[in-house]
# Entry
Amino acid sequence: MSVFLQSLDLEITRRALFACLLIGFANGYVSAFVVLRKSALKIGTISHGLLPGIAVAVALFGLFSWSVLAGALFAAIFIGLGSLFVARTSRIDHDTALAVLYTSGFGGGLILISRLGIRQKLDEWLFGGLMGMSDSDLWLAFGISAAAILLLTALQRPILILLFEPNVAASLGIPVRLLNYLLFGIVILVLVSSLQAVGCILSVGLLVAPAATIYMFSDSAPVLFWGGGLLGSLGSCAALILSYQLNWPAGATITLLLGTVFLLAFILSPRYGLFRINPASK
Amino acid sequence: MTTATTPDNPPHGHPDHVCWGGGAANHTQHRLDVRGLTVSYREVRALEGVDFSTECGRCVALIGPNGAGKSTLLKSLVGILTPEAGTILWRGAALTSSHRELAYLPQRGEVDWQFPITVRGLVEMGRYPNLGWWRSFQKHDREIVDRALAAMQLEDLADRQISALSGGQQQRTFLARALAQEAHVLLLDEPFTGLDQPAEEALRRLLRDLAAEGRLIIASHHDLETVPLIFDEVLLLRRRTIGFGTVQDAFTPEAIAATYGTPALAQP
# Structure
């Protein structure tokens, strides 16, 4: 703790801590949606696909936080919708299309980045760069987090029906397609905001593990959302402190710590864990 | 067992009776008219020119062999599937436009039982169509939820997660949600599948009570023996309408044989 407390004097540390609080909460909150939607792997794939978008945007517009954001957003939409288009118009299934699209895009992104001569930024985009948070990065994270939490909370009822009974939702007057696009957009925005903290390879960990952990204990969807947010922010902050003490990379420490907490929950949860007292399902 | 009937509402059939969700007396106008309903999955035609007409207060069985289109018909009524041709009118307007009046119980296998929701949470969902997306629960809504739970004898199970229930309790939870919604038309996909004897008898009585209070109940059903015990009317289905009418008139050995194709299966 002492190393961390000393470094709290530094602006850079305070920014990192604040970023962890914000990004951790938003990602943890939205992780409930990802877990209940059972779409963790798809989101993970799309998060890898952010890299080529960033590379292209930086090549075109230069290295700014808005160009990084716009590029990542464009790549996510391109890969997400492109893979859907391939799946719908051919015999290839969605997962196959996603895999081909993102690996080829990732390859292209790596080549472009090495040609651009910004290799030192590559590590940050891949594994996170909490120490390099600028004012605009923080504002961006704040804006995205606030919008995501506000929207998901306001639309809680239709989202709950959409998750629980996707087939019936449309018959209840819910604009399913519109809502799906909106939710996809929110997940992508939150993913992009977490890029700064954990990078595009690890980001899906932050966007899944918190709610997955709470799911081992709770039977309430609101608890999954808010509890996921709380665990995401506390876990990220604790991991940041730990990374200072042990001199570990921060992004990796965040996903490792959240993963360890999940593993403990999986083993120890009295109701749904490995050694549960009464099996919950019949 | 009376469910959500208010004391000042006379029984169904009485001229002053106010029906569920309809908010209107004169129940004879609460008719469901299905005309020429045709539904296809890509190139495969699942239903062809299905006709029938019924009204609230009735319990209608959908009978037919596997693949006859029972689930397809229910899903078209709810609006999950879009018909290729034909009309579905409820009280003179498209049934799907009155989704508040409509409750659907999916087949057991189509429900995600691990979803983090309790019995009470699921029944509360029944209030969403009335409350919209944002309006908060009032005392009135909580009372309706409590009454629905009581009517289905679920008070003691209200805080259970839905996978920790027996099959009969799970069906009653979905019925309680339909009650909380104050649904007028209940569409049930194989509600009796997987229930033990006592649970089946309880559900049978519940459906009779719900119909007696003025709801229209349409359920796909595979146990021919119990049809006369539960239902007033029967729709014999095999892609087309083989027969429709009261159980007495339409549920004859000949019609059953025509529906199933083999006389051996047709002994009710």
